[in-house]
Amino acid sequence: DTCATWVLQIARHGGSWWMPLLLLAVCILNSLTAGLFVAALGAVQVALFGIVVMSRKYTFILGPIMLSIGGLVAAVTHIQIMSSGGVELLLEKTGVAGSTWLDKATAWAGQYGFWGLMVIGLTPAPTAVAVIAGTIAKMDAYTVLTAVFIPRIVKTTLVALGLRFGTDQMTAEDFVRKQMLGEEAPYPKKE
How far is residue 118's CA from residue 104's CA, in Å, rounded to a whole number? Predict the structure, then answer.
């Protein structure tokens, strides 16, 4: 109930100018901690994304842009760590050492290059996996960043469109009430 109350209070400010910036800050923090605090930051990130998208009629695209920028910051950070010889550290801290995601991503990036990395970007694989795979495949940093950014913006935009047009004209507050508290929201139904 405390979490739902907090999200409801934030939902009232979804259209404020600072909400996309708050979403960006949470995304960057979540990305830079390599998902270490995903239970807390991930939940806040998802809630803020939904609020930003559902509270903005024309500027809902700011939600996907902020999530994608957060991923890009993480990718740049991972590339810097790898270029300074911190491959083992990155593998250990992100928890991807020996993962099947890393094995598949490395194989796809090695075999298909940029397009293989783009496909990895469309999966739920962590950003670190795509960066490591692209680096192992000897791709330059800009190619890796492009292959991380494009699929992320596509995925998050599709999710945003689903939220905008698949929630039957609910406000962010009504959506939170329905999803978190099980209440039926008093919103106009489409006929």
Answer: 13
